[in-house]
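As a warm-up, study this chain.
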Amino acid sequence: MKGAVADVTQAIGRTPIVKLNHVVEDIESEIYVKVEYMNPAGSMKDRVGLNIIRDAEARGMLGPGGTIIEATSGNTGAGLAMVAATRGYKCIFVMPDKMSQEKIDALRAYGSKVVVCPTAVEPSDPRSYYSTARRLVEETPGAFYANQYHNPANPEAHYLSTAPEIWEQTEGDFDAFVGGMGTGGTLSGCGRYFKERNPDIQIVGVDPIGSLYYEYVKTGRLTKAFSYYVEGIGEDFLPSTMNLDILDEVVQVDDKECFSMTRALVRREGIFCGGSCGAAVMGAIKYARELKEPKKILVLLPDNAQKYLSKIFNDDWMRSNGFLEEDDETGTVAHILKRHPHKLITLDRLTSVRAAINTLKQNGISQIPVLDEAKRHVGIVSEIDLLNFLVEHEGDLDHPIGDLVSSDYATVTPHTRTTLLKTIFNDAKVCLVVEHDRLLGLLTKIDLIDYLASVTTPAP
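Now compare it with the structure written out below.
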């Protein structure tokens, strides 16, 4: 039939770019979104699934009767499952248990087997979804491990498909490209393509609080990752498919911001998108607010709202997790800093061990942030760091503390909710409060305890 395509895989791509209007009313820059949920399996990962399978077939790694195995948050699995259905492959997907039931059900609808694993374990833990996927590959005859976190065919999909499509649609008429930081496929593939054609285009990554990307890009240090709710972006390890060198900026967002913006995009713009889309748009807005002059900003929206109806678009779920405005009774980090102000004490990384010890003693504190020459934090030095150094280097009190800096902290913003802070302190020793690369304060568990006690106990 005239106008028809041979199979559903040929319907991948050619998604529209839409200008945002209502959710960006206070922004001088123009913000546009590429609506990738209009791909046939509902996300940008359709492009990745197709390219990974094509590449595996060309390399002889996947053939008739083969089984595709992948660790996925859902969208890559759906893309792979859709393409596999047209080629007769079986699929086994391994997912963390924080993912929505809709995603699990969608993969099973394609005939795939789904194995669910705990989220709150280290990547190297045998129970993690990464480790489980590798074990299943070893146990399954004829298995092909898609391995999106380390497969070059992932960013290549966006270099060959998404980016050229955007360039053709816009004729290169944009100043910044914004995307969520997950496997790195989108930012690395599109970023490479755009930079080759216009090095001045800014590539901006958006990372959720709890992921390790933001702090690693800013300081070069791998801090502890901790759990968060938004799906599909953020990582607790560094995938080789993420080219961090191509990034010009990284912006941090939290769960509540992501979900509030996601709901606003649906209700005010009519764009039926998912949680990582809200994250990307929120990141773009934060980026735009710091610009000295207006720019044209293009944001990639990965997937649709259908997969999150039981979560982000369910008031009961939002309320029970403290994401609705009326339920934010205990406030944010900014409220803690205001109610319990502390003098922010810092040290330069060239400060001597002797001087650091004296500063801790004089102020009665056990850890202190360390700043670089640009006055940006590079980590903390604590009593145990100084003790360990002195045991190993007896008498070397004039050594600069820059070599002793540790990563035993988490980064939060003034807007981080105290309910999330309670979870963060399960994994992090202290929290550094940062906004626009500026260190605003340091919080410990006792600071949170004091604050919660003061807001929940009536004054005498």
